[in-house]
UniProtKB/TrEMBL annotation:
Protein name: NB-ARC domain-containing protein
Annotated transmembrane regions: none
SUPFAM superfamilies noted in UniProt: L domain-like, P-loop containing nucleoside triphosphate hydrolases
Presence of the UniProt keyword Nucleotide-binding in the record: yes
Length: 765
C-alpha cells in the first residue's frame, strides 16, 4: 500500500523525537513521561494513516479528521523544534556567552523551570487532542485503488501480426509488490482460464512450466512498480521454459524498474506532434459523422490542442470533455481554464498522474508537494529546492557521512526516475530542472491543504495553510499596495512556516518588500522556517528578527538599500542559510557570526576589508561560501580557521587581490573564481586543495598559474571550466590526460592551443 503524505509527516515527527538533540532536551527539561505518552498516541494513529488518506476523497468526515490531525502534527513538530532550539541556544551560551548573559537567562523564558512548565503544558495540550483523534480512528475503511491499462501495450497486444505470431497471448496486471504467487496465478489464469488460488507456490511453479513449455508466447506485465530484483529474477527463470522466440513487454512509470527488468533498452514515449494530437483530439471530441469541426471552432480547437503539449492522455481528456458540446462558450471555457480544473473529469489526466505520486515513498511526498511553492513554468535550481527542503525539515540525515545536501540530490534523482521532473544535464547542486504543467498541477493539488499561492490583495488564507507563494497579479496591484498584504494581519497567518516570492516579479517590481512588511512577517508569523525578503527596499533589518527562533533560511539578497544587520541576527541558532549577495550598501557583517552554529550556506556582498572581524572563520558547519562584488575585501580570514566542512567556495567581482587559506579548506570540492585576483604564495601553492573536483575560472590573468598549481597537486579534478581568459594558451599535459578529468569546457579563450584528445573531453566555444 502506498504510504500517505500524513504518514510521512508523522514518521518525521517520530524520527525527530528519537533524534539525539531532542532526546537531550527531553532530559534537560524533564519531560520524559510527557513525550513518552505523546509518542505512544502518535504511533497508534500512524498505523492507520495510509489507509485513511487513500479513502479521504470520498469521505467528507474523514477529510475533516485528517485535516485536524495534520494541524496537530504540525503543532507537535513546533514543540519539538522549540526544544531543539533551546538546546542549541544553551550550547552557544555555554560556549560564547558571558556571566552577565547567563544571569539574564535565568529570568527569561529560557530558564529551565519556566520552559519546562511551558513545554509540558503544550505537550499535554497536543496529546489530549491526539487522543481525541485516536479514538475516532475505528471509523476508517480500508480500500485499494485500481490501476489503469497502457494504450501502447494494448495496441501491440492486439496487432494483427502479433495475433499471427503468438498463439498464446497473456496480459497480467502485476501486484504492487511483485508477489510471485499472485503473479503466477494471474499468468496461469490468462493462459488456461483456471483459477488455482488453492495451490501453493511450488505447485504453481510446476503448473506454469508445464503450461508454457516450448510454447511461443507474448506476455505483457502491466504497470510494474516493484524494484525487487531477486523476485524478478525468479519469475524470469520460470518464464524461460517457453520457446526462445517468446517476448515479454513491461510497462512502468519508473525508469529504475525498466533498468532492473529490461534486457533491451527501454522505449520512452515522446510527445505527439501537433498533427497527431489534432487527429486524436477530433477522435474524442466529435462523433463519427462529424469529420470536420465547425469553422467557428477551428481556432479554439487549435489553441486547446496546443495546451496538451503532445501528451496523449491530456489530448484524450480534453477531447472527452468537449464531446457533444455544440455551444462555443463551452469550448472557450476549456481553452481558458487552468489544467487543474481537469481533475474533476472522470479518469482525467490528474487522476492518472496521481498514481505516480501515490507510489512515492513517504519521505518524497512532502518534497514533491513543494513544487507548488515555485511559479508555474519556472526553471528550478536544485540547490534552491534542496535548501528549501532543509529549511522545512524535509531532509533528515540518517547516514553519518552523507551531508543533507547530498541526500537532497538523491531525492531529486529519485523524483527524476519517476518522471516527475525534467532535469537539465547531470544531477548535482548546480543543476536545474523544469516541471511539466501537468505535474505542477498535481503538486498544487496534493499540497492544497498546506500551500497556497496568494497576491498582494489576498484577504485571508485558510487556517491549515503553512506555506505561501506571494505573487502580485499586475502592476496596478503593486501601485496600490499598502505595504502589508491583508492576509498577514489575520490570525490564520500565525502558523506560516514559509513565505516565498515570485522572484521574477520582484525584479521588475522592486520596492514591494518594505520595513513595514518585514515587521509584519516577524510579529505575526512566529513559526517561520523560511523567509524570503530578497529584492527588498529597506535599509535596516529589524532587531526583532531574533524572535523567529525556528528560522532556517533567511533570504536578503539583492537589496540595494540594506546598510545594516542587527547583532540579534546571531541569535538564530537554527539558521542554515543566510543570503546577502547583491546587498551593495551593506557596511559590515555582525561581529558574532560564530554563534550561527548551524549555518551551512552564506553568500555575501559587503564593504568590509576583512571577514575576520565577523567571525566567519569559526563557522564549522559552513558548506557553501559565496563572496560577490566585495570591492574592498582583501582578506577572507587569517590565523585560526575552522572552515573544515566548507565544500564550495565562489569568489566573483572582487576588485582587490585576496588571500585564501587553502591549507585550512581541507574539504573544498568546488572552487569558482571570476573577475578577481588571488594572492598566490608558496604556502598556498603547497596547500592547494587535494579534494577539488570542480574548478571554474573566468576573466582572470592568473589562469595559467592556477592551472599549473592544479597540475602539480594530487587533486582529483573532474570538471574544468574556463571563461573569457585570453591569456590562457595551453592545458598542462598531465592534467589534460588525467582520466579523472571528465570535462574541460572553454569559452572565450582565443589563444588556447587544443591538444589531441581521444576521449574528446574538450568543449570549446
Amino acid at each position: 500500500m502506498a504510504e500517505s503524505l500524513l504518514f510521512g509527516i508523522a514518521r518525521g515527527v517520530l524520527g525527530k523525537i528519537a533524534s539525539p538533540v531532542v532526546q537531550e532536551a527531553i532530559a534537560i527539561y524533564s519531560v520524559e513521561s510527557h513525550i513518552h505518552n505523546l509518542k505512544n498516541t502518535l504511533t497508534a494513529i500512524t498505523a492507520v494513516l495510509s489507509d485513511a488518506e487513500e479513502r479521504r476523497e470520498k469521505n467528507h468526515r474523514l477529510q475533516l479528521w485528517l485535516s485536524r490531525l495534520r494541524d496537530v502534527l504540525y503543532d507537535v513538530e513546533d514543540v519539538l523544534d522549540e526544544l531543539e532550539c533551546e538546546v542549541l541556544r544553551k550550547q552557544v551560551i555555554s560556549r560564547y556567552g558571558g556571566v552577565k548573559e547567563k544571569v539574564g537567562r535565568f529570568f527569561s523564558l529560557s530558564n529551565p523551570l519556566i520552559l519546562r512548565q511551558k513545554i509540558s503544558h503544550r505537550i499535554n495540550k497536543v496529546r489530549k487532542t491526539l487522543s481525541e483523534i485516536s479514538v475516532k480512528r475505528i471509523n476508517l475503511i480500508l480500500m485499494r485503488r485500481g490501476m489503469g491499462k497502457t494504450t501502447l501495450a494494448k495496441l501491440v497486444y492486439n496487432d494483427h501480426s502479433v495475433l499471427e505470431q503468438f498463439k498464446l497471448r497473456l496480459w497480467v496486471h502485476v501486484p504492487e509488490d511483485l508477489d510471485l504467487k499472485k503473479t503466477i496465478e494471474g499468468i496461469i489464469k490468462e493462459a488456461t482460464g483456471e483459477s488455482l488460488s488453492n495451490f501453493n507456490i511450488q505447485q504453481l511453479q510446476t503448473f506454469l512450466r508445464d503450461t508454457i513449455k516450448d510454447k511461443k508466447y507474448l506476455l505483457v506485465l502491466d504497470d510494474v512498480w516493484s524494484k525487487d530484483h531477486s523476485r524478478w529474477k525468479d519469475l524470469r527463470d520460470l518464464l524461460s521454459e517457453g520457446a526462445n522466440e517468446s517476448k515479454i513487454i513491461v510497462t512502468t512509470r519508473d525508469s529504475e524498474v525498466a533498468f532492473i527488468m529490461g534486457t533491451h533498452p527501454a522505449y520512452r514515449l515522446e510527445g505527439l506532434s501537433h498533427k497527431a494530437s489534432m487527429a486524436l483530439f477530433r477522435k474524442w471530441a466529435f462523433n463519427e459523422k462529424e469529420k470536420q469541426p465547425r469553422l467557428d471552432l477551428l481556432e479554439i480547437e487549435n489553441d486547446i490542442v496546443k495546451k496538451s503539449q503532445g501528451v496523449p492522455l491530456l489530448v484524450k481528456t480534453l477531447g472527452s470533455l468537449l464531446y457533444a458540446k455544440v455551444q462555443k462558450q463551452h469550448w472557450t471555457h476549456i481553452r481558458d481554464s487552468e489544467t487543474l480544473k481537469l481533475e474533476e473529469a472522470e479518469n482525467g489526466i490528474l487522476s492518472i498522474l496521481r498514481l505516480s505520486y501515490d507510489h512515492l515513498p513517504s519521505h518524497l511526498k512532502p518534497c514533491f508537494a513543494t513544487f507548488s511553492l515555485f511559479p508555474k513554468g519556472s526553471v528550478i535550481g536544485c540547490d534552491n529546492l534542496i535548501r528549501l527542503w532543509m529549511a522545512l525539515g524535509l531532509i533528515s540525515s540518517t547516514r553519518e557521512k552523507l551531508a543533507m545536501e547530498d541526500i537532497g540530490v538523491e531525492y531529486i534523482k529519485d523524483l527524476q526516475k519517476r518522471s516527475l521532473l525534467d532535469l537539465v544535464g547531470e544531477c548535482d547542486l548546480t543543476s536545474s530542472f523544469t516541471v511539466h504543467d501537468l505535474i505542477y498541477s498535481l503538486a498544487t493539488t496534493v499540497a492544497h491543504n498546506d500551500s497556497s499561492t496568494v497576491d498582494l490583495k489576498t484577504v485571508e488564507i485558510s487556517e491549515g495553510v503553512r506555506y505561501v507563494l506571494l505573487s502580485s497579479t499586475s502592476s496596478e496591484g503593486v501601485s496600490t499596495f499598502g505595504g502589508v498584504p491583508p492576509f498577514l494581519r489575520k490570525p490564520t497567518s500565525k502558523r506560516l512556516r514559509a513565505i516565498r516570492w515570485n522572484a521574477f516579479q520582484l525584479r521588475v517590481q522592486n520596492g514591494v518588500i518594505t520595513e513595514e512588511y518585514v515587521r509584519a512577517c516577524i510579529s505575526n508569523c512566529n513559526y517561520l522556517r523560511y523567509l524570503d525578503l530578497s529584492y527588498g527596499s529597506f535599509e535596516e533589518l529589524p532587531s526583532s528578527i531574533c524572535n523567529l527562533k525556528q528560522l532556517r533560511s533567511l533570504l536578503l539578497h539583492e537589496n540595494k538599500q540594506l546598510k545594516k544587520l542587527p547583532d540579534t541576527i546571531c541569535e538564530l541558532q537554527n539558521l542554515l542559510q543566510l543570503s546577502l549577495h547583491g546587498c551593495s550598501e551593506l557596511d559590515v557583517l555582525p561581529k558574532n557570526m560564530r554563534k550561527l552554529v548551524s549555518l551551512r550556506f552564506l553568500s555575501v556582498t559587503t564593504k568590509q576589508k576583512s571577514l575576520q572581524e565577523s567571525g566567519i572563520q569559526y563557522l564549522e558547519n559552513l558548506h557553501f561560501l559565496g563572496i560577490y562584488m566585495c570591492a574592498n575585501l582583501q582578506l577572507l580570514v587569517e590565523g585560526t580557521c575552522r572552515l573544515t566542512h566548507l565544500r564550495e567556495l565562489e569568489i566573483a567581482d572582487c576588485g582587490k587581490p585576496m588571500y585564501l587559506p587553502f591549507g585550512e579548506l581541507i574539504a573544498l570540492e568546488s572552487l569558482e573564481i571570476g573577475h578577481c585576483n588571488l594572492v598566490l604564495t608558496r604556502e598556498n601553492r603547497s596547500n592547494f586543495p587535494l579534494n577539488l573536483r570542480k574548478l571554474a575560472i573566468s576573466n582572470s590573468q592568473q589562469v595559467m598559474k592556477l592551472l599549473q598549481w592544479v597540475d602539480e597537486s594530487a587533486c582529483t579534478l573532474e570538471s574544468l571550466t574556463i571563461y573569457d581568459c585570453p591569456s590562457m594558451t595551453d592545458i598542462p599535459e598531465r592534467l589534460h590526460n588525467d582520466p579523472r578529468l571528465r570535462s574541460i569546457e572553454t569559452i572565450g579563450c582565443p589563444n588556447l592551443r587544443i591538444r589531441p584528445s581521444p576521449a574528446s573531453k574538450i568543449t570549446r566555444t
